[in-house]
Amino acid sequence: MDFSLLTLQGLNKIVTAKFEFENKAENTLRIIRQKTDKNEWAFLEIEISTDLAEVIKRCRSSGIASPFIIHHKPIRRNPDQSKDHWSQILPNYLGQELRKIRDSLDELAAIPPHARPTFHEIRSLGSHLYDIQGYSDEGYVQPLMGHSDVDMTRKYQAGHEIKWVKVKAELSLDVLYKNEMGK
Fold first, then answer.
1. How many CB atoms lie within 10 A of CB 15?
2. How many other β-carbons are positioned within 10 Å of the β-carbon of residue 48?
3. Which CATH architecture has domain 2-181?
4. Cα(127)–Cα(69) distance, rounded to whole angstroms?
């Protein structure tokens, strides 16, 4: 979840991200977004922040020799044609595991199951958190999310909090009353 929150990548990119795309010399992580391979955001080179480096370090410390950043040790190693490596996590599995954890939390028990957060909403929350920390939608968040237009990025950010519109009420009552009295 931390990896998705920081990188703003969706479920499919999270489960296919590999250590081999990590360039230690340049302190970057490379992600190829096939869904958007026709626009400029298809090939992301994400600078690895201190927090992202810590997340990657935690993933490396699993004791499993996996090429995938997000991985696990299955109970049985059955050959699976849909996996590139026995430790790979498939999108459905990750979604199911998140639901199990989410549904076991007392904090979310009062929320009906259909209204509880999904993995996809981690990306939305991350986008919102970047926004409130002052990162530019167009120059920072939009490319990280791989959106071709900033309006889509803003849709992801919407709904996390009430955004107050600051206005002024500066109508001069003096002018109004002087005109009324002068008649």
1. 20
2. 19
3. Orthogonal Bundle (1.10)
4. 21
Q: What CA–CA distance (Å, rounded) separates 76 from 68? A: 18
Q: Retrieve residue 48's tokens.
A: 């690895």
> Domain extents for the chain?
2-181
User: Rounded to an integer, what distance in angstroms lies between the CA atom of residue 79 and that of residue 88?
Assistant: 12
Place of tokens 């009420």: 169
How many CB atoms sit inside 10 A of residue 58's CB? 12
Residue indicated by tokens 């999904």: 118
3-state secondary structure 72-127: CCCCCCCCCCCCCCCCECCHHHHHHHHHHHHHHCHHHCCCCHHHCCCCHHHHHHHH
The predicted-structure confidence for 134-169, as pLDDT tens digits, reads as follows: 887 778 888 888 787 787 777 777 777 777 778 878
Query: pTM of the prediction?
Result: 0.75
- Tokens describing residue 182: 């002068």
How far is the C-alpha of 171 from the C-alpha of 67, rounded, in Å?
Answer: 65
